[in-house]
Amino acid sequence: MLTLFLAATAAINTVGVTDTPCPSPVVMNAELQAWRASVYAPTNHAMIPPPMAPALAYRNAYLEARKTDWPDLCGFHADNLKLIARPQAERDVVFMGDSITAAWEYGDPGLFRTGWVDRGISGQTTQQMLLRFPADVLALHPRVVHIMAGTNDVAGNTGPTTYDNIEGNIAAMVTLAKAAGIRVVLAAIPPSAGFNWAAIKPVPVIATLNQRLKALALREKVTFVDYGTVLATPEGAMKPDLTLDGTHPATAGYALMAPLVRQAVATAQKQK
């Protein structure tokens, strides 16, 4: 039986190790790109449904690609190679995260025009981020990395997990960055009272994780930033006028986050 399995695998996999592992990237078509631009228009404060057919085609193509690249190592592969060849000042600060980070450059594009690089991927959990951390952060060797992760772990995007696993994955990214001489800004998980893709009540879970992340930052002597101080209601939700869907900031939300992230990065850059 093992021989038959290995023979079948060999027939499928003609290349195991290569300098060019990535197929053509999965990209949004023009209609989806226009939808994304409209979502992050400064006057918009609600999630506009995407065009159904293009969104479904994009989702199916993306899920198919994840079958052979679960952490999405190919997502920024080509961009990273180009960036590594350019001056270090163009990759001074790298942002590791999920869709909240990925959308940041659309909600506040000016933030990413001075050597600040967005490496957020929608839907990702801390497990996936840890696996791509060497390629998307360490290889770029920025002076500072901003890590904001955990929303999708709380939502169960890659299955049930534990507080220890989430904290452990984030702690591992912090350790890898520090070992490489990269200063760290560790962000709290942004506030949310409910996810529109998962039937979970996240407020107490996010609160517990943020207490642990704050303690982790203190132990590791890295900069901690909590965007909940400007985004959250007293009950732990995201303020309705600052969010698209209760979880993702609107342009107005990112505008309030900007002074906090600038201060956090400046503080991290001064650390020894």
Walk me through what this model shows.
With 272 residues, this protein is α/β, with parallel strands linked by helices. The protein has a single domain, classed as Rossmann fold, CATH 3.40.50.1110. The protein is 47% helix and 8% strand. The chain contains twelve helices and five strands. The chain has a five-stranded parallel beta sheet with strand order 2-1-3-4-5, sandwiched between helices. β4, α10 and β5 form a beta-alpha-beta unit. α7 runs parallel beside α9 and α9 packs parallel to α10. The N and C termini lie far apart (57 Å). 34% of the residues are buried. The mean pLDDT is 92.
Please describe the structure with a list of short key phrases separated by commas or semicolons:
272 residues; Rossmann fold; five-stranded parallel sheet; 8% strand; globular
Please sum up the structure shown.
The chain has helices at 2-12, 30-39, 52-66, 77-84, 99-102, 104-107, 126-136, 151-155, 163-179, 203-220, 228-231, 251-270; strands at residues 93-97, 116-120, 144-148, 183-187, 223-225. The chain is an alpha/beta fold and 272 residues long.
